[in-house]
Write a structure and sequence with these properties.
heterotetramer; A: 253 residues; alpha/beta; 23% helix; B: 275 residues; three-stranded parallel β-sheet; 11 helices; 38% helix
Chain lengths: 253, 275, 275, 253
């Protein structure tokens, strides 16, 4: 069976996670990526979920569809209040935060609030949930998303979750003392940010993907890393573990 | 409103608010779903204060929320999840604001009118999240005694802060236990009786939403509900309210619409996941 | 330092700090008693940050505390009980200060250098209690698993905030339980493993102070201790430290000085009061 | 058996407490007074103790000697953190706070910190504990104390716990938005404060106590209420209930 886009995202995202660290993961592909990392190379990775859940062990085939339900809390180690979950991040205990988003711009800012004007939106999206807090308070943020031109825009209509804002130190100047988006994992490749301008740059392409293909699917001028790498394709053991987590393929497509 | 999304939502109280045809309410809840759609379509809510509203991943963006907000019939005041939590906590602590490092630099800071404050010791600038003192809090808990001392199992969400923050606190409970039971497990109590104004015994009081350890949310019910909305929009919700809110004279009659078999099954699923 | 007065004091860790002849420490604890006297007489503490220090009503004002503070050998930095709690909580929340309505107008505001801050929404002036980030936290808890997830029974005091506030967290526990045990009662966990740096299994780790539900404080032992001080002052504490801290090679040897009979009796008294 | 000073204080203080209210009580006579009120006329009185204890039922003969021990928490209804206990008061949930003190002045300010200079004290006292918070945050404070001249001074050496500060609205001006000392219960009588000057005034004398006797034992100029009452002596049922709480007479003398 060939690798689906969701599987590719989950495997590449899982590789971003180290052992003995903590990850703030939303439901769907991010949670699958975290659970995969736990089983593959990070057995002591602590998964933290927005609904007030620390250290759960997701039950294969019983994947949660929200961040605050019994499937998400399965065999958790601690269940603090939701406010306290985010305060752990504000105190600096959350190493990595996974995020998605309807719009992502050249500086890694994310929009999940509105398309068009905030006051009279063309499309009112569900909203930030904890995304703004994760983007503001985790030590490192990794965006995981399908790569589509309508999604990758020069500037988001609304900055729901701060990436590097306008780059050039504007994030710390805004009072966000730590954190920021380090990587963007997409269906086409792995992206980072120029250390000075904080504009998005291509760092690696998935096997068989061309730079032109990436440019065609990106709505802004992309920088390119000095040495452009190619990502390791998902290994059989990674896919096997991942597929066992979602046998009904509710999120793996 | 206590709970979170479709967990421990005080639906028995929401149902009664709708039956009393209340109007012009501002709904403050960290994550909102069907209860928010009910309030919008019934005309009970003119404003929602939340960080997120829809139902869940499988059901996409709430069409009801989109129609009412994009159409300008309901105001959507968006705060970050932590910021809304801190608004309740500030009120619970009896202070006018709490300092925080969130929402800074984002467009949410502008749309909410978030102000900053300078730390008088270091000179650092931090966000000042304003306290929110609700007129009424509605909560659903696992157990309480006749004095209103409440205990919650599993994730506590923001209920304890909301109870301290609000001027009037209404609570429904799955179980009313003897005073001695509370005293035997005093370290499980999260809301003291002197904070609670009214307490009602309502088993399955948040069904078809979930109650940790007691019953899982009825996802099949959500499927039917959302499918109907995809067809008929707000009309589908009106029909739903006629059937589930206005028609059944009592909450027991309401539960009968789901049937004992379904309630028992959801209980089995909850036990499976938590034991 | 976790616990409060003679409840859940991490005495096994205090004992080790004294055995290592540490010097120049600042001791921050909400209510202090014998552990503070030990640290003063041993020369380990040069400053205490607390709201109250003595032992308890029946034993009057601590003569040791008076001698060392009035003599200028130890600085006594006095904060209100809530203010000290908010200093830990501010740090635990990762903010530089917390607004409060306490300590205003009193002379404590001047002696602590407490500053005020203006609420940017209402213009009201409130106290700004500065965050306190201890270099090291020492705590004693009821149970923990190998990941350092800690659970406390009865009154939690300020331990959870202190653990989040400190740079390094050292914990002793009455019991080390299997990971599965923590997961079965996740809603009882108050300190997550990722906050804890070191964990040691030390039953009776706060004796002769109390541990809720497990053993009552040994008041007779306090009587003997205080009577000796009334006679010989600091000399009596030095002799006490020689006998209980420096002489016994292990904590087991330390407990032998009290005897199994006494430990069993204090356990019976605790069970009587909590079951 | 004749009434001891401690018994007199406990009975008169107990009468200050109403049913369906909350009281912040320290150990010793204040806690005995609260427990007496509960058994005598306020069955639904909620006792709150500094150590993180709400609604305990004190076990007769097992009186606590500190605010944070199992005797104080006996059959409690809730055991929050110590910080949260005081935050309930800051939020306005605590109706009455009982307090004692080494020095009390004409404006009801209390000193439990130092005699002499704070920096180099003649006598270093144990400190505020929660007294400053109780005096700042309860809706009403009642001081319960033996009446001695050395205790009742014109101005305390150090304001540990704010009463009316310097009177004339200085308390609210300091940012203390509510509360204040309403009554002082002593071994000689019941005292209040002039609504304007906020100076202490005699409101009632215990049977057999003369105004001169009170003046001799007070180190400042006392005002006198328009109509000076006489307190009801402790009734047999009050004494019976009280003595049953402390059979060993550890606090009743």
């Amino acid at each position: 069976m060939s690798v689906t886009p969701a599987e590719l995202l989950a495997v590449i995202a899982a590789r971003e996670l180290r052992d003995d660290s903590t990850v703030f993961a939303g439901v769907g592909v991010p949670l699958l990526a975290a659970a995969l990392a736990q089983q593959h190379h990070a057995p002591r990775l602590t998964i933290v979920i927005e609904g007030g859940i620390i250290g759960p062990r997701i039950k294969p085939g019983r994947l949660p569809i929200s961040t605050n339900e019994m499937r998400a809390a399965h065999r958790a180690q601690m269940l603090p209040t939701i406010t306290d979950i985010f305060l752990f991040a504000q105190r600096g205990f959350l190493d990595v935060g996974f995020m998605g988003g309807a719009q992502i711009d050249a500086h890694g800012n994310v929009n999940t609030s509105v398309l068009g004007e905030y006051a009279r939106p063309k499309v009112r999206l569900p909203g930030t949930g904890g995304a703004n807090d994760i983007a503001s308070l985790c030590r490192e943020v990794v965006i995981v998303t399908p790569h589509e031109r309508r999604r990758f825009v020069e500037r988001v209509d609304f900055v729901t979750s701060p990436g590097w804002l306008d780059g050039d130190g504007s994030r710390p100047r805004a009072g966000l003392l730590f954190g920021g988006v380090t990587h963007v994992v997409t269906t086409l490749g792995l992206f980072g940010f120029d250390p000075d301008s904080r504009r998005m740059r291509v760092e690696a392409l998935h096997p068989g993907v061309s730079l032109d293909q990436v440019r065609e699917n990106t709505g802004f001028e992309l920088l390119t890393a000095a040495s452009l790498a190619t990502t390791e394709p998902p290994a059989p053991d990674e896919l096997e573990l991942l597929r066992a987590l979602d046998p009904e393929r509710r999120f793996l497509g | 409103m206590g709970g979170c999304l479709f967990s421990r939502t005080p639906l028995a109280l929401v149902r009664e608010i709708l039956r009393q045809r209340r109007r012009g309410l501002t709904l403050a809840r960290n994550l909102m779903c069907t209860e928010g759609e009910f309030m919008m379509v019934a005309g009970a809510a003119e404003r929602v204060m939340t960080s997120w509203m829809s139902i869940g991943l499988p059901w996409g963006v709430s069409r009801i929320m989109r129609d009412y907000v994009e159409g300008g019939r309901v105001a959507f005041e968006e705060w970050s999840h932590l910021a809304l939590g801190l608004r309740f906590r500030a009120a619970a602590m009896g202070v006018p604001f709490l300092p925080a490092l969130t929402m800074l630099g984002s467009d949410l800071a502008a749309t909410t009118g978030l102000k900053t404050v300078m730390d008088p010791y270091t000179g650092a600038t931090v966000a000042a999240v304003p306290a929110l003192f609700p007129d009424v809090a509605i909560l659903h808990v696992h157990r309480a005694d006749r004095f209103g001392n409440c205990q919650i199992d599993g994730y506590p969400h923001m209920d304890a802060d909301i109870a301290r923050a609000a001027a009037t606190v209404l609570v429904t409970t799955e179980e009313i236990v003897p005073e001695e039971e509370t005293r035997r497990h005093a370290d499980r109590t999260v809301i003291p009786g002197f904070v609670v104004d009214a307490l009602v015994h309502v088993p399955f009081g948040s069904f078809p939403h979930e109650c940790y350890g007691l019953y899982e949310a009825d996802f099949a019910h959500f499927d039917t509900y959302v499918t109907a909305i995809q067809g008929a929009g707000a009309r589908a919700v009106e029909e739903y309210l006629d059937r589930y809110v206005y028609a059944p004279p009592s909450f027991a009659d309401y539960l009968d619409l789901f049937g004992g078999e379904r309630l028992a099954q959801q209980r089995r699923l909850a036990i499976e996941l938590t034991q």
